[in-house]
Amino acid sequence: MLTRPILVLALLALTACATPSTDPQRLPAGSWTLDTEHASVVWRVRHLGLSWYTGRFDTLSASLDFDPAHPEAAQLTAIIDAASLSSGHPDLDRTLANGWLHAAQNPQIVFTSERIEVVDATHGRATGQLVMNGRSVGAVMTIEFYGGSFNMLAGDDTVGFAGDMVIDRSDFAVGSLPASIVGQEIRIHIEAEFLRLGAHS
Questions:
Q1: What domains are there in the chain, each with its CATH number?
Q2: pTM (two decimals)
């Protein structure tokens, strides 16, 4: 049985891990890398105008350079493996990855930020270039900052974000079916935790 002092310390440690600060000014500056075990990319597209068909990309990486004193100068790069598209239907996945995204010729989907706009303490917009299917098009990602803390499980400083982006598939020549069958608008939602590089080495 845990003694009372040890129990109190354990509870305090768990509380510190579970209650991140949402004040960006309290975060340490530095380079951060995606914790791929706690990240996801979900895409949605209208099907016959009746529902939002939903799938994922299973393989991704990202890097973030961040200085809390100058959040507008942050640099974000996110890379998705185009062949990791997953809808839960393997035959459809192969069709979409090979016939729509041409993953063999264009293996990566890449978003690189060029400008960060701070909206308020927990929201912002990243304007940059999205490269997909061999085309590069300007894109905007809206960002929500969940907070940051020292993550005892990972042993590193950790920050959490959500990102949302809406693109027109015709801008990237993704598929040729009419919008009445597959909508032109693709909605992308990202959940991501980043670990600070070299923080405790």
A1: 25-196 (2.40.128.110)
A2: 0.83
